[in-house]
Amino acid sequence: MSWTITEELIPALARGAAVLGTGGGGDPYIGALLAGQALQQYGNVEVVTLDEVPDDAVVVTVAMMGAPTVMVEKLPGLDEVVTPVKELSEHYGKPVTHIALAEVGGVNSTIPIAAAAALGLPLIDGDGMGRAFPELQMILPTLYGVEASPLAYADEKGNVGVIRAISNHWVERIARVAAVEMGCSIMISGFHMSGRTAGESLVKDSLSMCLRVGREISNAREQKIDPVEKTVTVLGGRLLFEGKVTDVERATTTGFARGRASIDGAAGTMTLQFQNEHLVAQIDGDTVATTPDLIMVLDHENGEPITTEGLRYGQRVRVIAAPADERWHAPEAIEMVGPRYFGYDLEPHRFDGSVRPGQVIA
Amino acid sequence: MSWTITEELIPALARGAAVLGTGGGGDPYIGALLAGQALQQYGNVEVVTLDEVPDDAVVVTVAMMGAPTVMVEKLPGLDEVVTPVKELSEHYGKPVTHIALAEVGGVNSTIPIAAAAALGLPLIDGDGMGRAFPELQMILPTLYGVEASPLAYADEKGNVGVIRAISNHWVERIARVAAVEMGCSIMISGFHMSGRTAGESLVKDSLSMCLRVGREISNAREQKIDPVEKTVTVLGGRLLFEGKVTDVERATTTGFARGRASIDGAAGTMTLQFQNEHLVAQIDGDTVATTPDLIMVLDHENGEPITTEGLRYGQRVRVIAAPADERWHAPEAIEMVGPRYFGYDLEPHRFDGSVRPGQVIA
Q: What's the whole-model pTM score?
């Protein structure tokens, strides 16, 4: 059933998006600012479920591409957000009818809200990943043969481009170097698809899930319930580890924020490896979670999601995991987003549902 | 008066283009191969003088962008050459009527011949520089307000893109990183202009000049006349130096072939600094020629032009200079292509016509 995004919902949405962003997706409050501004200026956004999208709808994704570490200092404007969508409408000679989220993490949950508001278009309650991933082609529609091309991009200076490449991976490569050159963050729109294909390929209800996670964290705090345990339950996940951040290495290279963090706790030392998003979690060398499953770091007490760029020495955190959309575990999906793609010589670890949510393993 | 490019003219054109390429523009014989192939397949190309281009003609430039050192190993195909022009025709909704040379150097003199043949369009006897320069915005039309945008590009794999940027320098920046990512050479088309603007902004008769230089070198050899002196006379230039190449440093970085060469001779040691093209010539530290004037290295005996990537230890060479189109010496032009732009802390050296052609200075 369709629902409406009002300004009051933005903080909870942004918080939930930061959880599902698995450490990536940038500072959720920047995206929230932009979405809030767009709602004030253009009014509320109608959200439609995937079932409600007509088969012949013209759907495109809207997202920020670049290193989230840079976006903290470079707030995008609404012009920059809507320009790529307008480019695609012109390119096809027929208007885009629905905006979809490419990923459900961080700013890329809230920027499409801003785009939908400014364009006066409905937003789809769903996304292409059910989480966040660092590269553009890492989206379930790729597995359904949806082309990222033509991909339109824009920066805050007024530079605009369109890429039509031979594969979604080539779109990623060309757009990525453009993003780096243009100041490490650009707005993009692409993955043009019919409503029917959107219905098949996107992850259902993920915007609702963001809102639910964000609200449950607030409610738990008010009710003096443990917000981390609550989040684990909502996501059908489990607690992996708790401890104190003792080390963070981070570098912004080739448009990504790459690094690793160490967390010391009673159960040993957890090492987290990330490339925008958390990709591998190990305890004393034993792998306990990997991409494509979701690895999230939350503040120990208040359950606030901590992005990879927000990790600091001395933070008390809990690390939780949740299962990815089942389609991410297909062999061709693992090839695209499994640990080996990111350079870790590891088999993908399969989320173990037999462990009770909240139970500390190892 | 219009004339026709037949396959027999290609070798002389390519040789002359290599001279005017001032060390850059890539291996002229690769461009010649491509042009020859296109003429065989599609027939001869009509060349029209700038005076003959109708005011309302739709003119675009065609060129290769990238490091010429790479092109030696990656021969472009005709599809790659014509795709960007077709993209622009579609973009404007009206067909391109004339092809122009962005620069007169190396492959960028012969690739537009291939494009004109394959597209069945007339080629303009003129170019945007009267020489070769390493960056896309370094073209006289920029000084006349002609926008490089939209710039279309294509690679040999089938990747295509269009850039619309806020300045020609931004087009250069975004296209350059795309070129590097796509394998260090792409075909581009842009600088869409009317026939009238082409007439005002392009350098006249430069394709004829290529042909003349190339022919004079062959004729001189046949007639046992010094081909280097002949070239100097045709270009209204002068001999700067003669000697033996003793050192060449070269690196392909950020899409350019950068480096320096040392030449030992009776008059001292000449140092040449280049970035795709020769930009500064000094004898024992005294500057004797700089960009925007033309600095060219020719084989001592047979007058064959030597590109920066063709420079080798032990070669006996003569270095000659010739004046650039006068418009390149305007202050705003010097800002764009003067020595300081390239990082050399030097005033632009003005070509000294008082020195008799062929006279060795210093």
A: 0.89
Q: Which residue has the tokens 């016509």?
A: B353
CB A134 within 8 A of CB A21: no
* CB-closest option in A158, A162, A163 to B166: A158
Mean pLDDT of A107-112: 92
Q: How many CB atoms within 10 Å of residue A158?
A: 14
The answer on pLDDT for A4 being more than 70 is yes
Report the CATH number that the domain containing residue B156 is assigned in CATH. Answer: 3.40.1610.10
Task: Give the DSSP per-residue string, A219-234.
Answer: HHHHTT--HHHHHHHH
Which candidate in B177, B180, B188, B254 is best for mutational testing of the A interface (most A CBs within 10 A)?
B177
Distance CA B15, CA B211 (A): 8
| CATH number reported for the structural domain that contains residue A278 in this entry | 2.40.390.10
> Does some domain include residue A277?
yes
The domain containing residue B195 runs over which residues?
3-204
- Shared domain for B261 and B179, answered yes or no, is no
Q: What is the pLDDT of residues A9-49, one digit of tens each?
A: 999 999 999 999 999 877 777 888 889 999 999 999 999 99
Domain check: are B148 and B31 in the same one? yes
The pair of structure tokens assigned to A139 is 């989206």
Taking the C-alpha atoms of residue A115 and residue A86, their distance in angstroms, rounded to an integer, is: 11
For residue B281, give the 3-state DSSP assignment. Answer: strand
pLDDT of residue A70: 61
* Assigned domain for B189 exists: yes
Contacts of A160 in chain B (CB under 8 A): 163-165
In a domain, B211, yes or no: no
> In chain A, what residues touch B182 (CB-CB under 8 Å)?
174
Dump pLDDT digits (tens) for A121-133: 999 999 999 999 9
Domains held by chain A: number: 2
Distance CA A25, CA A280 (A): 17
pLDDT given for residue B354 in this prediction: 53
Give the mean model confidence (pLDDT) for residues A143-154. 98
Cα A9 to Cα A113, A305, B120, B127, B162: the distances in Å are 11, 17, 60, 59, 38
